[in-house]
Structure formats: C-alpha cells, structure tokens
Amino acid sequence: MSEFKENVIAYVARVPKGKVVSYGQVATASGSPRAARQVGGVLRALPSDSGVPWWRVVNRDGYLSIKGNWEASKELQKQLLEKEGVVFDDNFTIDMKRFGFRDGLK
DNA sequence: TTACTGACTCGGA
DNA sequence: ATCCGAGCCAGTA
C-alpha cells in the first residue's frame, strides 16, 4: 500500500465529527500538496466498511463536487454531514470558516 | 510499462 | 464577483 494512500486515510480518520477538510488540505497533510485529485481517488476506492469518514472531505469552496454515477453518494454525504451538525446554506455550500477543521500539525 | 482519468486547485480574463 | 483553461499526479487498466 502506498504511503500517500495510508496518510490520506490516517488524516481523514482524525477529522472531528462536525468538521470538514478540503481535498487539497488532505493532500498537503499527506505529503503531496498537488495531489488533491488523488485524494478523491483514494476515498472513492474505500470499501463501505472501512470506517473512514470520507464524507467529511469536500472541495475548497465548501461544496460537494462528486459527479456522474456518484450522485447518490453525494446525497448521502450531505445527509451524513447534516446529521453531524454541519449546515449547508441555500447554495448547498458549507461555511468553511465555521466548519473547516484547523489541524494542529506544527 | 505506458496511457488515460479525474470525489481538485489556482491563476488569468 | 464569476467563468474558463490548464497543470497536477496517484490510481487503474
């Protein structure tokens, strides 16, 4: 298993309930700042019983960018987040200032 | 091994 | 503020 993949999973796993992070943030924290798209690829490949809170990862603008055949997952993601207290505004967008997870990595 | 893909981002118009 | 084009690079075939 690649290190990048492991890092992504490890990082996402420690995002607190009720908070969200961007793909780019995860990529940076995983050692490859320009691999934001790959983060999506890793999450997409996760088995449903992985226990990884993939739904807490959104794009930098705070909305869900899943498309195509993943529309169903997109709806699921929204519901899971709202269940955790994350609020979507009229444009289906999350206020990253309020719900963005600031990591303490220093 | 090479080729293609895209659950992203950034910078310029 | 909004839209658009192109780089990015780990996965997958």
Q: Would you kindly provide a written description of the structure presented here, covering whatever features stand out?
A:
By secondary structure, the chain is mainly alpha-helical. It has 5 helices and 2 strands; from the N terminus they run H-E-H-H-E-H-H. It has helices at residues 3-13, 23-29, 36-44, 71-83, 96-99, and strands spanning 21-22, 57-58. Helix 2 crosses helix 3 (36-44). The longest helix has 13 residues, at 71-83. The chain binds a DNA duplex (13 and 13 nucleotides) through helix 2, helix 3, strand 2 and helix 4.
Write a brief caption for the model.
With 106 residues, the chain is mainly alpha-helical. It has helices at residues 3-13, 23-29, 36-44, 71-83, 96-99; strands at residues 21-22, 57-58.
Characteristic key phrases:
mainly alpha, DNA-binding, Arc Repressor Mutant, subunit A, 4% strand, two-stranded parallel ribbon
Fold blueprint:
Layout (H helix, E strand, L loop, with lengths): L2 H11 L7 E2 H7 L6 H9 L12 E2 L12 H13 L12 H4 L7
Parallel strand pairs: 1-2
This protein binds a DNA duplex (13 and 13 nucleotides) through helix 2, helix 3, strand 2 and helix 4.
| Number of E-state strands | 2
| Tally of alpha and pi helices | 5
Strand portion, in percent?
under 5%
What is the CATH homologous superfamily assignment?
A: Winged helix-like DNA-binding domain superfamily/Winged helix DNA-binding domain
List low-confidence stretches: none
| The CATH architecture | Orthogonal Bundle
Shape: globular
Placed side by side, the strands forming the largest sheet appear as 1-2
Order of helices and strands: HEHHEHH
Reading off the top of the CATH hierarchy, the class is best stated as Mainly Alpha
- In helices, the fraction of residues equals 40-55%
